[in-house]
């Protein structure tokens, strides 16, 4: 099973130089990664932490944290891209409806952030979802009024705060051909 290396940064927030209590720990990251690997084992992929460090605090106002693209840009600007996927684990973000954010197709670099959800199953599912974006998967849109789309509700890439963990054969094929998988595990 190909293994994709992850450099994990536990990134504490601060506002006006007042550091917030960290939610993530190395142990919580390992538990979440076990969930990630259980989900992606369906595609015969695994992810390994090459490093897990507590990063320097990010002093950013709470009022601007809920712009996921801007936050991801700030997080990635703090580190030089290398031969790993960079994952930033952050505290819960008020008014952010996403579990995190990723650069679709790993462009310009393979990086994501995942916010804290209070249990390993939810963290891991959000993390697996963000990795899906890095491996070229986009959101699955579900019309909840259409009973024929009931199976999509349990898909990993369902948009919104979902608990889905399933992948279709088409999604697995797309992931296997993605830039990220070919770069790291091809």
What's the rounded overall pLDDT mean? 89
SSE succession: EEEHEEHEEEHHH
Helix content: 25-40%
Q: Tell how many strands the DSSP assignment holds.
A: 8
Alpha carbon gyration radius: 16 Å
How much of the sequence lies in strands comes to: 15-25%
Overall structural class, as computed from helix and strand content, comes to: alpha/beta
Major beta sheet, strand line-up: 4-1-6-8-7
Name the overall outline: globular
Q: Unreliable stretches, pLDDT < 50, 5 or more residues?
A: none
Q: Describe the sheet with the most strands.
A: 5 strands, mixed
The total of helices stands at 5
> How far is the N terminus from the C terminus?
10 Å
Report on the architecture of this protein.
By secondary structure, the chain is α/β, with parallel strands linked by helices. It has 5 helices and 8 strands, in the order βββαββαβββααα. It has helices at 26-40, 68-77, 120-134, 169-176, 179-184; strands at 3-10, 13-15, 18-19, 46-54, 58-59, 85-90, 100-102, 111-115. The strands form 2 sheets. A 5-stranded mixed β-sheet has the order 4-1-6-8-7, sandwiched between helices. The protein has a 3-stranded mixed β-sheet with strand order 3-2-5, with no helix packed on it. It starts with a strand and ends with a helix.
